[in-house]
Amino acid sequence: xxxxxxxxKKRNKDVFKTFFNKxxxxxxxxxxxxxxxxxxSEDIVQDVFVYLWExxxxxxxxxxxxxxxxxxxxxxxxxxxxxIKVTDKNHILEFNINLITEQVFDSNxxxxxxxxxxxxxxxxxxxxxxxxxxxxxxxLHSYKYSEIASEMNISIxxxxxxxxxxKQRIAELITILLIIP
Length: 181
Fold this sequence. Notes:
Strand content: under 5%
Low-confidence stretches: 86-92, 98-108
Oligomer: single chain
Number of strands: 0
CATH superfamily of the largest domain: Winged helix-like DNA-binding domain superfamily/Winged helix DNA-binding domain
Distance between the termini: 27 Å
Order of helices and strands: HHHHHHHHH
């Protein structure tokens, strides 16, 4: 991986393009796990790659390039959420993603984490529309149960039930998807 950053520092467009093509979609999926907005996720990842290209000479990466970029994407996602007044004060989104990752994998392999994120996003899309809306309002917009109930014109108990079912369904499906090759 250090070879890749060295080549990028030398302005090797072919190496950069190959790296970009190989990893772009994975970083978009990762960003989308924070934002639940594909267009914003794509913009952030593109900005990260532009930053990498434009500032390669000044970047000093001590670990891996992929890890460095994951950190950049995460930080830009969190900054983006702050700008639109969405906060994750309790780190619920990151905690849930890390919890699922830790439960399924004992290793810190980036490839394994990428698989988890891809499956998590697929699972979110399979949830019923109302359940998706409840999950997004709770974890992305930090709504209280009463606010969600009012917004969606449902009872607080329905909100709690939907969240409980969503968590169970996500946990079950992520385990099933990752066990099946």
